[in-house]
Amino acid sequence: MRAVIQRVLHAEVKVDGKTTGKIGRGLLVLVAVEKGDGEKEMDFLVRKVAELRIFEDEEGKMNLSLQDIGGEILLISQFTLAARIKKGRRPSFDKAEEPEKARKMLEEVASRWRGMGIKVEEGVFGARMEVSLLNYGPVTIILDRQYGGENDR
């Protein structure tokens, strides 16, 4: 799984002009499920996003997690994060998981966050979405297998 995590003051997603998800302070999480992803990758993403200490404490230091601040998540499926651009000019999306499996995995990710008491809003899988946000910091983190693994805590 690849994810782009942005710390936001607020974020919103619309499909066909209608809001499908809207959050206040928290994280906008764009995720691509890649072929070969499974339970281990879901566990890592869920835990890392919930526990990542990128919110400021009273001294202005990034010491607090989403859970610490009672923040929210706006989860957006974005298969284009699985793009490979090494050859040519047109991105290859061969590494992206089949849509139905990816959709089920992202539903499970959202469910696990909700089970942790985190408010989760979502886009619409496979839809053309308009995402707006106010990135605070700015703080943007890329989460990918090459940047972390099961022993990365």
Would you write up a description of this structure?
The protein is built from 3 helices and 8 strands, in the order βββαββαβαββ. The chain is of the alpha/beta class. It has one domain: D-tyrosyl-tRNA(Tyr) deacylase (D-tyrosyl-trna(Tyr) Deacylase, Chain: A). Strands 1, 2, 3, 6, 7 and 8 form a 6-stranded mixed β-sheet that branches. The radius of gyration is 15 Å and the shape is globular. It starts with a strand and ends in a 10-residue tail after the last strand.
Kindly report the CATH topology. Answer: D-tyrosyl-trna(Tyr) Deacylase, Chain: A
**Envelope shape:** globular
- What is the CA-based Rg, rounded? 15 Å
Mean pLDDT: 94
The CA-CA distance between the termini, in Å, is 17 Å
CATH class group: Alpha Beta
Low-pLDDT segments, ≥5 res = 149-153
Assigned CATH superfamily: D-tyrosyl-tRNA(Tyr) deacylase
Specify the biggest β-sheet. 6 strands, mixed
Can you count the helices?
3
Second-tier CATH architecture:
3-Layer(bba) Sandwich
Helix content: 10-25%
Percent of residues in β-strands: 35-45%
For the record, the count of structural domains works out to 1
- List how many beta strands DSSP finds: 8
User: Secondary-structure element order, as H and E?
Assistant: EEEHEEHEHEE
Structural class: alpha/beta
Task: Give the SSE map.
Elements: E1 2-15, E2 18-23, E3 26-32, H1 39-51, E4 55-56, E5 62-64, H2 66-69, E6 72-77, H3 99-115, E7 119-122, E8 130-143
Parallel strand pairs: 3-6, 6-7
Antiparallel strand pairs: 1-2, 1-3, 1-8, 4-5
